[in-house]
Amino acid sequence: MPFIPHTETDVAEMLRTIGVPSIDALFDEIPAALRTRALDGIPEAMSEMEVARLMQERADQDGRPLNFIGAGAYEHHIPAAVWAIVTRGEFYSAYTPYQAEASQGTLQLLYEYQTMMASLTGMQVSNASLYDGASALAEACLMAVRAHRRSKSARILVPATVNPTYLKVARTIAEGQNLKFDILPYEQREGTTQRSSLEAYAGQDITAVVIQQPNFFGLLEDVDAITDWAHANNALVIAVVNPLSLAILKPPGEWGTKGVDIVVGDGQPLGVPLSSGGPYFGFMTTRMEHVRQMPGRIIGRTVDLDGKPGFTLTLQAREQHIRRSKATSNICTNQGLLVTAATIYMSLLGAEGLEQVAAACQQQTNKLVDALTKLRGVKLAFDGPRFHEAVLQLDRNVGEVLEQLARAGIVGGFDLSQQYPELGQALLVCATETRTDGDIERYAKTLAEVMQ
Amino acid sequence: MSSRALIFDHSRAGRTAKVQHPQGLAAQVPEHLRRKRRPMLPEVSELQAVRHYTKLSQLNFSIDTHFYPLGSCTMKYNPRACNQLAMLPEFLVRHPLAPESTGQGFMACLYELQEMLKEVTGMKGVSLTPMAGAQGEFAGVAMIRAYHRARGDLARTQIIVPDAAHGTNPATATMCGCTVVEIPSLPDGDIDLEALKQAVGPQTAGIMLTNPSTLGVFERRIHEVAKIVHDAGGLLYYDGANLNAILGKVRPGDMGFDVIHMNLHKTFSTPHGGGGPGSGAVGVSDRLLPFMPIPIVGKEGDRYRWLDERDLPQTIGRLSAFMGNAGVLLRAYVYMRMLGRAGMQRVAEFATLNANYLFARLRQAGFEAAYPGRRASHEFIITLKRQARELGVNAMDFAKRLLDYGFHAPTTYFPLLVPECLLIEPTETEAKEDLDAFVDALVAIQREAEQDAAKVKGAPYTLPVRRLDDVRAAKQLDLTYQPAAAASAGS
């Protein structure tokens, strides 16, 4: 019996102790009419060897194409040590550290993580993670409504250069509580948020303004000006950032004269594999004055009965298991294991390593853009300063080009034509430090063949 | 006493794991957008990081190292094969937005997982995208709201929740813009049907139920509950936290539920990871099919494709940037294939056998059952109110002393309506001798409590720390490390 240790003798002794004739008798409180008969739709059991064979076949079917997509998930080198430690049973098979004394490993790691994320984003406090970057933005918007007591509008301004899927998720999660999202257009030449569009909102009751840096097109927004405009107009500022980029970009805590109020993003670039979309983790940092409005677990350092320092879950009065319908969020389980990976990753890389990786990503993306825009029928849509993504415009159907590239073993980028039809046949490309000059050459050569 | 070193204590300026990153590059960033001061990240060697985090891991209790009978959390063995096969390199490097043609193997696994979950729950459709139980709950209540709205039934904004419910249930209702009405449980643990009849009406959106409930007993009159709520125009939500108790024995769809969430990290044995990732797949009845969260894997001929807004125009929408916790879904898939049809039915049988055995032994040893007249499901509650009153030793003291005996504590003080309670869930993967050892430990602690209450109240003694000052943690907030010199250093 898979994973069930009972011998026949065990079962007999246990039934005798309970005082029932059979295991089936233990279900005697369930109305007979409800009892399931057979599960015909479930296949027969496979051995580990058989299922390993099946999974390898499925994996082989997908292969390992050369990837040039970012769009919110990025392929980076992950040191072997990261997942070797993450998958230790003591991290992998523990749960939320409710019993602090028996969970000091996880708790101390989370405290170290909170320290790293606060410092990386230039903020004072961090929670212990949310599900992913998109749902973290939704939570940040809900938090802004709670934190901004003088604003009654629950209106959030979101630039069109914020990841469009993040906005969709924010709508799904936050519109039930009557939040309203207004979209700010971008400059058609520069690809960054149109500053003049903000003026239409001057003097109105705006709860928060969202800024994504780098934006969805990979471009750098004028974060200082937007932050200062928002604060001058009594709105909070929510930053959506790529944590790796913060090794080289000004942290949100220093944007404008006051810094932003809430920072969120997806932690995936920090040691988490692409893995077809998850599990990743969302992070959130804020100012100390808003800590009681923050959703999710928070770890604090305290002392034990002997005065010895230790770590524990704290500020639990915000949470669903205490506050129930008045909690800051319904979140319970978060993404602890992925945070474990990120903490080890950041420890191995350090600030210098992250800077170097970020610089390498930018360098390889610039090389990619140079190589591809040399081809006839390919041009760069926006030429401003960028991090590690760029928008290219093609003179033919992007979807068809991507399919042909896929047949040649290249995942060539993200098709923007559905979400940004005004850009025409546009493609968002990305090269991280994992793409070599040879990889870029191969892409350029293959694209030239496809575009002929 | 001195504290255990933080990773930052090992930092020395200029030290990194050099083999892990390029060197000598300079990023091109305009002056006003550039970072001026480095973040405070550790500066350590690879060995220092490996040793530090390996040592931290050794401070944890986990399923792999300890019996972990945390009620309502289903801490069963997480087979290693599930992890290894979900982490095959091809799955790990696959970008979520890569063309469907490069993901047919991955999508086949997800499609078959959807089909198996439909079969085992009796629901008509499954969406795998919610990233945890609480997000599955959110999806469920959002679908209930969308259903009423689509019918123009706009007044239905009230969610009924039994008093024994998980905190996530009322919190979810609030997140969905609903109000919450609590109804009481009867002394035998079943729902008070009279109170339910009083509570329902034209304002009722639905009821959220866990069955077996968090009281560790099966709601026997579930058909009547379903009828009362359905007759009033409401829908039934099944909180799958306790699905392990009935897997293969009863299907929520057959009980009359319209929507359910499953915790794949409980019932289908994906790792709890020190607090996630979870995975909260949802299943629905016919009438909620159009509202399911996207993306969903569809199959046309022998080809798999993502179903999105174009296929389900009435969807409640997206809950994550991509496909939920995809790698967790692969782990659940591998687990279900190894269990197979018969194995899945054995889950509830042996989880229930273990719980009832432990329950019987503890009662024989003199511990008081919260619901003595009832059969235990996959978990059960004992109350230590007598020990608290007579000996001054409460449930928390027992829980902390259990740690000294090498057992993770059961869930304490939940559900809230049973005083001084321990909610105990052994799961099917524990052997009889481990259950016996757990009983022996509780009996020994009971004896200690009678002879030397202070000893139990001072526990634990053998862990890295003794009992922590939670009040101080919340009052003197210390949420990040602040090196004494950092304020003036500035690098």
- Fill in the CATH topology of the largest domain in chain A: Aspartate Aminotransferase, domain 2
Main beta sheet of chain A: strand number and arrangement? 7 strands, mixed
Estimated radius of gyration of chain A: 25 Å
Helix content of chain B: 25-40%
In what order do the strands lie side by side in the largest sheet of chain B? Answer: 1-7-6-5-4-2-3
Structure described in brief:
Chain A has 2 domains: 114 residues, Aspartate Aminotransferase, domain 1; 265 residues, Aspartate Aminotransferase, domain 2, CATH 3.40.640.10.
Can you walk me through this structure?
The complex is a heterodimer of chains A (452) and B (491). Chain A is α/β, with parallel strands linked by helices. Chain A folds into 2 domains: 114 residues, Aspartate Aminotransferase, domain 1 (Alpha-Beta Complex); 265 residues, Type I PLP-dependent aspartate aminotransferase-like (Major domain) (Aspartate Aminotransferase, domain 2, 3-Layer(aba) Sandwich). In chain A, the strands form 4 sheets. Chain A has a 7-stranded mixed β-sheet with strand order 2-8-7-6-5-3-4, sandwiched between helices. The relative contact order of chain A is 0.14. The mean pLDDT of chain A is 97. Chain B has 491 residues and is an alpha/beta fold. Chain B folds into 2 domains: 259 residues, Aspartate Aminotransferase, domain 2; 132 residues, Aspartate Aminotransferase, domain 1. Helices cover 36% and strands 11% of the residues of chain B. Chain B is built from 16 helices and 13 strands. Chain B has a 7-stranded mixed β-sheet with strand order 1-7-6-5-4-2-3, with helices on both faces. A 4-stranded antiparallel β-sheet of chain B has the order 10-11-13-12, covered by helices on one side. In chain B, α8 links the parallel β4 and β5. In chain B, α2 runs antiparallel to α10, α5 crosses α6 and α10 crosses α13. Chain B is globular. The two termini of chain B are 31 Å apart. The C terminus of chain B is likely disordered. At the A-B interface, α1, α2, α3, α4 and α5 of A face α1, α2, α3, α4 and α5 of B.
